[in-house]
Amino acid sequence: RPLKPDELAFLEKSEQNYIAVGIGASDKRKMASPEKLAEFLTILSIENPDIKFHMLGYGKSDISYFQELEEYFKFDENLVCMVNKLTLVETVREIANSKLYIGFDSGLYNVAYALKKKQICMISLNRSQDFFHEDSNIRFLYKELNKNIEEKGIDSEYNNDINLISNEVFK
């Protein structure tokens, strides 16, 4: 159905004090492990103790991911679980009104791009992606090139090099 005018209100951006975090993707090989994402969110929480993270996603696997993330993340009061609680339009509104979007190569990454939202997108160079949007609003994070990083840190379930992105690169 066509969107009603009040549903299009998200296009009028009203930036709030939270970061939208997309926790899903079409393939676990395109995602960091919950433990690694918790490390990154902890860095942001220490530097910005009042910031909230609106966790976005849909489906059983995203709920499981969020639950595991909660186990590793020490700032529980900063996590706002919106997984399976929003329509697509409401999810788009959450991204539009956030200070920043953080996620992986996913549908929500493309939504953030379409909204011209500042974002951090964690990607695997091993996925042989032919195309990522080129935009000054996007900062792609990936395992540092030309560095001898031990690959034993790769999570067996999230089998990719996103888990090898250093905290220094994230900062």
Q: What does this protein structure show overall?
A:
With 171 residues, the chain is α/β, with parallel strands linked by helices. It has five helices and six strands; from the N terminus they run E-H-E-H-E-H-E-H-E-E-H. It has helices spanning 34-47, 60-72, 88-96, 107-114, 167-170; strands spanning 18-22, 52-56, 79-81, 100-104, 119-122, 138-141. Strands 3-2-1-4-5-6 form a six-stranded parallel beta sheet, with helices on one face. Helix 4 (107-114) links the parallel strand 4 and strand 5 (119-122). The longest helix is centred in the first third of the chain and has 14 residues, at 34-47. The model has no long low-confidence stretch (mean pLDDT 84).
Summarize, please.
28% of the residues lie in helices and 15% in strands.
> Which structural category fits the helices and strands?
alpha/beta
Identify the quaternary structure here: single chain
**Helical fraction:** 25-40%
Shape: globular
Largest beta-sheet characterization: 6 strands, parallel
Mean pLDDT, all residues: 84
Radius of gyration of CA atoms, rounded to a whole number:
16 Å
Strand order of the largest sheet: 3-2-1-4-5-6
